[in-house]
C-alpha cells in the first residue's frame, strides 16, 4: 500500500517528516501543528441469545506488542538495511545541533563587527586600518561558516535520501507480509471465530490496522531515531558550551515531556475509540451494500443511514475530544518554548555581564536546547505512530498467532490411503460455541452407509445443517464422536478430510473470477490440482456437463472465461447453483454433502440436475438435506429430524406406509392433479414430459439473461474510464458547502490561524534586536535591554499560547465535523444510487466500503489541524516578506528569489505522489475486495481448502502497489531530501550575502537579522505548505471522488419528489409490450414484448425456466430498472411518472435469499415499515409474525423480540430468516405483494402453514409470485408461463394442466419423482 494513503478507517497519524529539521537559528514552530490523529426450531431458540461481546481471539483490549516484535517478519537483509538507515537518520538528526554551533559563531562575528563599527573613528587612520582588518576577518569568517552550512546541507541530502529510501521500502514490504499473514490467519480460523467477526470488519482491519503498523515500521521509526539523535546531540553540545545556561534551560524538558505525554495519552485513547467506531461503520456498510435491493425495496435507506450515523457519531465524538487535547497540548508547548527564550536572554545577559559567556555561547546553547526540546516534541507524534503500530499489531498478531482448535493448516492427523465413506455419529451432543447453554443435538446416534445416498428432512432448525457442519468439521461435538470409516474426525488431518468432501450449500457462493476458475476451485489441494491446463479444463467441462451447466456456459461469448461478478451476481440463481454443483463434484470426492443443492433451480433444471446428482452420487457417500421432497424420494435412506433427534428413518415407500411425520410432509407438498389425470407421476406422459423438458432446457439455457444474465464485464469496467477529477479550489469550496456550520467554524479558526502566523515575524524582530543588544559595552544598558527583551519574549509566549491553542482546537473540531458529515453524506449517496450503479464491477461491495472508510479520512488529514498550518504558513510568508522588504529590500528580494527553489521541489514531489496515490488506490481496491470476499465466504473457502489459494491471490494483488511504491519512492524521496538540503543552501546564501552587505555598511546588523529571520523563515515556511504533499495528494483525489459521488444523480432517484402522488391505490398492474435489456449488456434482450395484466386483489404466479425473465419482471415492478420499451402501469398510471418513494411504499418484496441486518428481531421486522420512526403497536407486530408462522418461535426465545439475529441473520436457520422476512413484508400492509421464491427455503410443514398465511395475506391485495415449486402457486388466480421474455401461456392451474402445454410438462416432470 502507498505510504501516503490513509485507508479504511485510519485516522491520520502525525506526519512530521517534512518538519523535522530547520537550519534557522530558531526551531520551526509550525511543525507542531502537524495532525496527530492520527437448525432447529427448538435448538435455535436459545441459539439466538445475545452473543458474548468478544469471540475467541478478538482483541480489542490486547496488550501492545514489544517494539522489536513489530519487525518479527523482517528478513536478515532487511534488518541490516534498517540498521544502516538508522545510522543515516542519526547522522542527519545531529545536523541541527551542529548548525547551532555554526550559527552561534556567525552571530558572534556580526556582533563583533557591529562593536568594531561603533568604535570606528573615521578621522583616525589607525582606527580605519584596524576596521579594515576587522572587515576582512568578518567577511572571511562569514564566508567560511556559510560554506560549513553548505557542507552540512550536502550531508543532510545524502543521509536523508538513504534512510528514507531504506525505511519506506522495508516498511512497505513488511506491511504486505503482515497483510498476507493476517488474511491467512483469518482464513485459518475455525467457524466459531466468525460468530461475531464480520467480513466488513476483517476488510477494514486488513487495510486500516495494517496501515497503522506500516506507519510505525516505515520512515516514522527512522524519524523517531532522527529526533532522538537531535535531542541527545543538542544536550551534549549545550552542556559543553555552557553548562550553567544549559542547566537553567533544561528546566523546560520536564514541562515539554509532561505536556507531550499527557497529550499523547489522551490522543491515543481517542484514536482507539475512533478506530473501533470506524471499523463498526465498515461492518454496517458491508451488510447494507451487499443487500442493497432489499434496502431499496423496503425504503430502509433512512433507517439504515441512522444506524450508520450512530457509529459515525461515536467516531466524531472521539475526534472532537482529540482536537480539544491538541489545542491544549500545543498551547502549553508554545508557551514553554517562548517562555524559555525569555529565560535564555535574561540569564544569558547575566552570564555575559559576568564574563562567563559570549553571544555565540548564548545563541549556541539556546538553539541547541531549543532543538533538543523541539526534537522531544516532534518525537511524540513519531513515537505515537510507533506505539499505535504496537497497539494495532497486538490486534493483528493475536489473530496471526491464534491456533484454532480445528486448524486447517495443521499437518497433524491421519491421512488414510483409501476412503470407503461410512460416517457415524455416536451419542453426539452439540451446542454452538457462542451459545453453549443451548443444546442443538441431543445424544444423536446415526449412521450414513458408505456409497449410499442418505437424505435428511425435517422442519427448519431441526439440526440438519448442524450435522453437515460437523461432518465438514466446522465444529467439533461437545460429547460423543463423529467418525469416518471408524476413525474419529478429530484424529484425521482437517485439510485431507475436506478434500474427501464436496459441499453444495443452500446459498451458493461464487468468487469474483471466471466460471472456469470457480469450478477449478474444487480441485485445490487435491491430486488433480497440478494437472495440465488442457486436462484440467477437460475435468471442469465434464463436471459442468454432469451439473447441466455446460450448455449455457458454452453459449456465452467468453464461455468458461466469462466473469461471474461479485458473489456471482452476474449469474441467475439456478446458474450459480449449477456451477457450485460442478465445483463440488469436479474432484470426484468420496463424500457429497448437498444442503438444499437444488432449491434455486426451476422444475426442468431440477429434474436434469437431480438425475446428474444421482449419477454423480454413485460410488460415493451422499448426504442430502432437502425441503423439496421430490428431490430425495429415490434416496437409499431418508432420515426425519426433529429437535436435534431422529424421529424416523427408512426408504420413501417405507416411510409413506408408516403414515408418520414424513407422510405428512409429502402430503403437504403434493401437487393437485384432478384436472389432468393424464399427468400422473408415472407412465408415458411423464416420460414424454421429461424428454420435452430436456429439450426445452437445452434450448433455453443460452437465452438466460437479466439478473439471470451474464453481463459484459469488460463494458462495465469501462463505465467510468476517463473520469475527470475536480479542481483543487472547486473542491475546497465544495467541501465548505457541505454544511453551513463548517464554513463558520473554518472562518473563525482561520482568524486565529492568521494571528498565529504573525507570531513568527514578531519573534524575528524581537530576536534580532535581542542579539544586537550585546553590541552594547555599557553594563547597565545591557542589563536593562536584556530584561526588556526577556519581557517581550514572555508577552509573545502568552499571545502564542492563546492563538495556537484556539487554532488547533477550532480547526480540529471543524475538521472532525466535516468528516462526520462526509461519512454520513457518502453513505446516504451510495444507498441512494440505483441498482445499475451496483451492477458495475468498480462498485463492488469491497470497493465501496474502501471508499466509504478511506476517502473521508484522507480528506481529514488535510481538513483538520493541517488546514490551520496552511493558513498560518501563508500568513507567515506574506507578513515576513513585507517586513523584510521594509527593513532591507535587497536582501529580502534575494531571499524571496529562493522561494521557487523551495516551492518547486515540494510541488514536483506532490505531482509524483498524486499520480502514485491514484494508481495505488486502484491497485489496492482489488486487494481489499479480494480480502472482503474471502472473509465473507469463509465457510466456502474452508470447504474448498482455498485458504492458501486466496492468500496467494491476495499476495499477487499486493505486488503491483509494491512495485509502484518502489518506483516512485526513489524519485519522491530524492526530491524530499533535496528540499530539506535546499533550506541549508538558502540559509548559507543569505548569510553570505548579508555579511557582504553589512561589511559594506549597506545595512545595519539589526536590520539584516530582522530580514534574515523574517524573510528566510517566510521562504522556508512557503515550502512548509508542500510538506503536506501526502495529505494534499491523497485529500484532493479522495475529495474528487467524494464530490463526484455526492453530485451524482441516479436515473431512478429515491430522493426525488417530483413524481405524481398516488391516491387510493387499488393494485392493478399492467405490463404492456415491455421490452428490456440490462444497461451493461444492451445487445442481450431479456424481455421481448411482454404483456401481463394483474387485476386488483388477485394472486398471479410467474413460472418458467431459469433465465426466462421472471426475476427481471419483479425488478421492473419494483422499479429497480426502467424498461427500454413499453409501459408498466399501476392503476392506469405509468410507474415512471410516480413518486418512486411513495410508489414503493405500496409494495412489499420477499426474495429468494432473505436479508436480515445485525440487530434484534424486532428491529429487522420494523424495517419493513415505510417510516421506521412511526409507532407500531405490539398487536400489529405480533399479528404480522403470527401470519408468517414465526410468532411462537420468537416468543419462546429468552429475549423474545429483542433477540439479536447476528450478522446477516447468521444465528437463525434459513427457514426462520425467511419467515421473519415475510413478517417484515406483511407489516407494511402493502397493496402489492411480490414473492420471489418466498417459500423456497421452508420445510414442507412450515411451507404449508406459511402458504396458507400468504394466501390469507393476499386477500384484498395484489400478489405476484415467482415460483419453481408449483405446489406453492397451484391456487393462484392466474399463472403466466414465461419463455424467451414473452408470455407462452396463461390461466389457472387446472386450465393450464388441461392445455397439456409447457406448464403441463413442468407439472408432469415435478410429479414424476
What is the general shape?
Answer: elongated
pLDDT average, as an integer? Answer: 78
Q: The biggest beta sheet, please?
A: 6 strands, mixed
List low-confidence stretches: 1-60, 672-724
Q: Quaternary arrangement of the chains shown?
A: single chain
Termini Cα gap = 56 Å
Number of H/I helices: 42
Helix content: 55-70%
In terms of structural class, how would the helical and strand content be classed? alpha/beta
**Which radius of gyration do the C-alpha atoms yield?**
37 Å
Q: Per DSSP, what share of the residues sits in E-state strands of 2 or more residues?
A: 5-15%
The number of E-state strands comes to 20
**Major β-sheet strand ordering:** 6-7-8-3-9-10
Observed structural traits:
1313 residues, 6-stranded mixed sheet, 42 helices, 20 strands, single chain, alpha/beta
Could you explain the architecture of this structure?
This protein is of the alpha/beta class and 1313 residues long. It has a 6-stranded mixed beta sheet, sandwiched between helices. Strands 16-17-18-13-19-20 form a 6-stranded mixed beta sheet, with helices on both faces. The longest helix is centred in the first third of the chain and has 64 residues, at 125-188. The model is unreliable at 1-60 and 672-724 (pLDDT under 50).
Summarize the structure.
The protein is α/β, with parallel strands linked by helices and 1313 residues long.
What is the element layout, followed by pairings?
Layout: H1 76-93, H2 95-119, H3 125-188, H4 199-217, H5 219-241, H6 243-249, H7 252-289, H8 292-297, H9 301-354, H10 359-401, E1 423-431, E2 439-448, E3 453-458, H11 464-471, E4 479-484, E5 487-488, H12 494-499, E6 501-504, H13 515-520, H14 533-546, H15 550-554, H16 573-585, E7 591-595, H17 603-616, E8 621-625, E9 637-642, E10 645-650, H18 652-658, H19 661-669, H20 684-700, H21 713-717, H22 728-736, H23 740-772, H24 779-832, H25 835-839, H26 845-863, H27 865-887, H28 889-897, H29 899-936, H30 938-943, H31 947-999, H32 1005-1025, H33 1029-1047, E11 1069-1076, E12 1087-1094, E13 1099-1104, H34 1110-1117, E14 1125-1130, E15 1133-1134, H35 1140-1144, E16 1147-1150, H36 1161-1166, H37 1178-1187, H38 1191-1195, H39 1214-1227, E17 1232-1236, H40 1244-1258, E18 1262-1266, E19 1278-1283, E20 1286-1291, H41 1293-1299, H42 1302-1311
Parallel strand pairs: 3-8, 3-9, 6-7, 7-8, 13-18, 13-19, 16-17, 17-18
Antiparallel strand pairs: 1-2, 1-4, 4-5, 9-10, 11-12, 11-14, 14-15, 19-20
Amino acid at each position: 500500500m502507498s505510504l501516503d494513503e490513509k485507508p479504511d478507517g485510519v485516522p491520520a497519524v502525525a506526519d512530521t517528516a517534512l518538519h523535522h529539521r530547520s537550519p534557522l537559528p530558531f526551531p520551526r514552530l509550525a511543525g507542531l501543528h502537524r495532525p496527530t490523529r492520527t437448525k432447529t426450531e427448538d435448538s435455535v431458540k436459545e441459539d439466538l441469545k445475545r452473543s458474548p461481546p468478544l469471540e475467541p481471539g478478538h482483541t480489542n483490549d490486547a496488550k501492545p506488542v514489544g517494539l522489536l516484535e513489530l519487525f518479527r517478519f523482517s528478513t536478515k537483509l532487511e534488518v541490516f538495511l534498517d540498521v544502516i538507515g538508522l545510522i543515516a537518520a542519526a547522522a542527519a538528526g545531529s545536523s541541527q545541533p551542529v548548525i547551532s554551533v555554526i550559527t552561534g559563531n556567525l552571530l558572534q562575528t556580526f556582533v563583533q563587527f557591529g562593536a568594531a563599527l561603533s568604535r570606528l573613528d573615521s578621522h583616525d587612520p589607525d582606527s580605519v586600518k584596524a576596521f579594515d582588518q576587522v572587515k576582512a576577518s568578518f567577511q572571511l569568517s562569514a564566508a567560511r561558516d556559510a560554506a560549513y552550512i553548505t557542507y552540512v546541507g550536502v550531508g543532510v541530502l545524502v543521509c536523508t535520501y538513504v534512510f528514507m529510501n531504506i525505511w519506506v521500502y522495508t516498511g512497505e514490504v513488511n506491511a504486505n507480509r503482515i497483510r498476507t499473514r493476517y488474511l491467512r490467519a483469518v482464513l485459518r480460523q475455525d467457524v466459531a471465530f466468525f460468530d461475531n467477526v464480520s467480513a466488513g470488519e476483517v476488510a477494514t482491519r486488513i487495510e486500516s490496522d495494517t496501515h497503522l503498523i506500516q506507519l510505525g515500521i516505515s520512515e516514522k521509526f527512522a524519524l523517531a531515531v532522527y529526533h532522538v539523535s537531535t535531542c541527545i546531540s543538542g544536550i551534549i553540545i549545550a552542556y559543553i558550551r555552557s553548562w550553567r545556561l544549559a542547566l537553567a534551560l533544561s528546566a523546560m524538558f520536564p514541562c515539554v515531556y509532561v505536556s507531550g505525554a499527557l497529550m499523547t495519552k489522551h490522543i491515543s485513547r481517542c484514536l482507539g475509540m475512533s478506530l473501533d467506531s470506524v471499523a463498526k461503520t465498515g461492518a454496517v456498510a458491508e451488510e447494507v451494500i451487499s443487500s442493497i435491493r432489499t434496502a431499496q425495496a423496503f425504503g430502509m435507506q433512512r433507517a439504515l443511514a441512522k444506524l450508520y450515523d450512530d457509529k459515525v457519531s461515536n467516531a466524531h465524538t472521539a475526534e472532537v475530544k482529540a482536537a480539544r487535547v491538541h489545542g491544549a497540548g500545543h498551547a502549553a508547548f508554545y508557551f514553554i518554548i517562548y517562555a524559555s527564550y525569555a529565560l535564555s536572554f535574561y540569564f544569558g545577559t547575566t552570564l555575559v555581564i559576568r564574563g562567563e559567556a559570549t553571544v555565540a555561547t548564548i545563541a549556541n546553547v539556546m538553539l541547541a536546547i531549543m532543538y533538543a526540546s523541539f526534537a522531544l516534541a516532534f518525537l511524540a507524534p513519531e513515537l505515537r505512530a510507533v506505539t499505535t503500530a504496537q497497539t494495532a499489531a497486538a490486534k493483528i498478531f493475536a489473530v496471526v498467532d491464534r491456533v484454532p482448535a480445528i486448524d486447517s493448516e495443521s499437518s497433524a492427523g491421519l491421512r488414510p490411503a483409501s476412503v470407503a465413506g461410512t460416517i457415524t455419529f455416536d451419542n453426539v451432543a452439540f451446542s454452538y460455541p457462542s451459545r453453549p447453554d443451548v443444546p442443538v443435538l441431543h445424544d444423536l446416534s446415526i449412521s450414513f452407509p458408505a456409497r449410499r445416498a442418505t437424505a435428511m428432512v425435517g422442519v427448519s432448525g431441526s439440526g440438519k445443517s448442524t450435522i453437515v457442519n460437523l461432518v465438514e468439521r466446522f465444529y467439533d461435538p461437545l460429547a460423543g464422536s463423529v467418525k469416518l470409516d471408524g476413525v474419529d474426525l478429530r484424529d484425521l488431518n482437517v485439510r485431507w478430510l475436506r478434500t474427501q468432501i464436496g459441499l453444495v450449500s443452500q446459498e451458493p457462493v461464487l468468487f469474483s473470477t471466471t466460471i472456469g476458475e470457480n469450478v477449478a476451485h474444487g480441485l485445490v489441494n487435491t491430486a488433480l490440482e497440478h494437472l495440465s491446463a488442457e486436462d484440467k479444463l477437460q475435468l471442469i467441462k465434464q463436471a459442468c456437463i454432469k451439473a447441466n451447466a455446460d450448455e449455457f456456459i458454452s453459449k456465452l461469448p467468453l464461455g468458461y472465461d466469462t466473469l461471474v461478478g461479485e458473489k456471482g451476481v452476474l449469474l441467475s440463481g439456478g446458474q450459480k447453483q449449477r456451477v457450485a454443483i460442478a465445483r463440488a463434484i469436479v474432484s470426484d470426492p468420496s463424500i457429497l454433502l448437498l444442503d438444499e443443492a437444488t432449491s434455486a433451480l426451476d422444475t426442468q433444471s431440477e429434474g436434469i440436475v437431480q438425475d446428474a446428482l444421482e449419477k454423480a452420487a454413485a460410488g460415493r457417500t451422499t448426504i442430502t438435506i432437502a425441503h423439496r421432497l421430490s428431490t430425495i424420494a429415490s434416496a437409499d435412506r431418508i432420515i426425519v429430524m426433529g429437535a436435534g433427534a431422529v424421529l424416523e428413518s427408512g426408504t420413501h415407500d417405507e416411510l409413506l406406509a408408516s403414515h408418520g411425520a414424513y407422510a405428512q410432509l409429502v402430503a403437504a407438498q403434493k401437487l393437485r392433479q384432478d384436472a389432468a389425470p393424464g399427468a400422473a407421476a408415472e407412465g408415458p406422459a411423464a416420460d414424454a414430459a421429461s424428454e420435452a423438458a430436456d429439450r426445452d432446457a437445452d434450448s433455453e439455457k443460452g437465452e438466460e439473461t437479466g439478473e439471470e444474465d451474464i453481463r459484459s464485464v469488460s463494458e462495465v469496467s469501462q463505465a467510468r474510464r476517463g473520469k475527470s477529477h475536480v479542481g483543487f479550489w472547486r473542491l475546497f469550496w465544495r467541501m465548505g458547502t457541505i454544511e453551513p456550520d463548517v464554513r463558520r467554524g473554518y472562518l473563525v479558526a482561520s482568524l486565529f490561524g492568521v494571528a498565529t502566523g504573525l507570531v513568527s515575524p514578531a519573534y524575528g524582530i524581537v530576536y534580532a534586536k535581542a542579539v544586537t543588544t550585546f553590541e552594547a559595552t555599557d553594563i547597565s544598558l545591557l542589563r536593562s535591554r536584556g530584561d526588556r527583551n526577556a519581557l517581550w519574549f514572555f508577552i509573545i509566549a502568552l499571545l502564542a499560547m492563546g492563538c495556537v491553542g484556539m487554532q488547533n482546537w477550532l480547526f480540529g473540531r471543524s475538521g472532525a465535523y466535516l468528516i462526520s458529515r462526509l461519512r454520513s453524506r457518502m453513505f446516504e449517496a451510495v444507498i441512494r444510487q440505483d441498482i445499475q450503479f451496483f451492477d458495475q464491477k468498480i462498485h463492488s461491495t469491497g470497493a465501496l466500503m474502501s471508499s466509504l472508510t478511506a476517502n473521508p479520512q484522507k480528506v481529514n488529514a488535510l481538513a483538520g489541524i493541517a488546514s490551520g498550518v496552511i493558513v498560518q504558513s501563508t500568513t507567515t510568508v506574506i507578513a515576513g516578506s513585507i517586513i523584510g522588504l521594509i527593513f532591507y529590500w535587497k536582501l529580502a528580494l534575494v531571499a524571496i528569489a529562493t522561494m521557487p527553489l523551495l516551492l518547486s521541489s515540494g510541488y514536483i514531489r506532490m505531482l509524483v505522489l498524486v499520480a502514485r496515490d491514484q494508481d495505488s488506490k486502484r491497485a489496492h481496491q482489488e486487494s481489499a475486495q479480494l480480502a472482503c470476499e474471502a472473509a465473507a465466504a469463509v465457510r466456502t473457502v474452508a470447504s474448498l481448502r482455498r485458504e492458501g489459494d486466496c492468500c496467494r491471490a491476495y499476495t499477487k494483488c499486493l505486488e503491483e502497489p509494491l512495485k509502484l511504491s518502489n518506483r516512485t519512492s526513489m524519485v519522491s524521496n530524492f526530491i524530499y531530501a533535496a528540499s530539506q538540503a535546499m533550506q541549508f543552501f538558502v540559509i548559507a546564501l543569505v548569510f553570505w550575502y548579508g555579511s557582504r552587505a553589512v561589511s559594506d555598511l549597506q545595512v545595519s546588523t539589526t536590520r539584516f537579522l530582522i530580514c534574515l529571520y523574517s524573510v528566510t523563515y517566510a521562504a522556508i515556511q512557503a515550502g512548509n505548505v508542500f510538506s503536506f504533499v501526502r495529505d494534499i495528494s491523497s485529500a484532493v483525489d479522495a475529495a474528487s471522488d467524494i464530490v463526484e459521488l455526492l453530485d451524482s444523480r441516479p436515473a431512478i432517484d429515491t430522493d426525488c419528489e417530483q413524481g405524481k402522488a398516488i391516491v387510493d391505490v387499488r393494485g392493478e398492474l399492467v405490463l404492456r409490450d415491455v421490452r428490456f435489456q440490462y444497461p451493461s449488456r444492451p445487445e442481450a434482450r431479456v424481455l421481448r414484448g411482454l404483456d401481463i395484466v394483474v387485476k386488483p386483489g388477485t394472486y398471479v404466479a410467474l413460472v418458467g425456466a431459469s433465465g426466462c425473465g421472471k426475476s427481471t419482471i419483479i425488478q421492473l415492478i419494483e422499479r429497480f430498472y426502467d424498461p427500454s420499451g413499453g409501459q408498466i402501469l399501476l392503476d392506469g398510471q405509468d410507474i415512471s411518472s410516480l413518486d418512486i418513494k411513495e410508489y414503493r411504499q405500496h409494495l412489499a418484496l420477499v426474495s429468494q435469499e432473505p436479508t436480515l441486518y445485525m440487530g434484534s428481531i424486532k428491529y429487522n421486522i420494523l424495517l419493513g415499515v415505510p417510516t421506521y420512526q412511526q409507532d407500531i403497536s405490539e398487536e400489529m407486530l405480533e399479528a404480522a409474525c403470527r401470519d408468517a408462522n414465526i410468532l411462537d418461535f420468537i416468543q419462546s426465545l429468552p429475549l423474545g423480540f429483542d433477540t439479536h439475529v447476528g450478522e446477516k441473520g447468521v444465528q437463525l436457520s434459513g427457514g426462520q430468516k425467511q419467515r421473519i422476512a415475510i413478517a417484515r413484508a406483511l407489516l407494511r400492509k402493502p397493496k402489492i405483494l411480490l414473492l420471489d421464491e418466498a417459500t423456497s427455503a421452508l420445510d414442507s410443514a412450515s411451507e404449508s402453514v406459511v402458504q396458507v398465511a400468504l394466501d390469507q395475506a393476499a386477500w384484498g391485495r395484489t400478489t405476484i409470485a415467482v415460483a419453481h415449486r408449483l405446489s406453492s402457486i397451484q391456487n393462484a388466480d392466474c399463472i403466466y408461463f414465461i419463455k424467451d421474455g414473452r408470455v407462452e401461456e396463461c390461466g389457472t392451474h387446472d386450465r393450464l394442466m388441461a392445455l397439456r402445454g409447457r406448464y403441463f410438462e413442468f407439472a408432469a416432470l415435478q410429479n414424476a419423482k
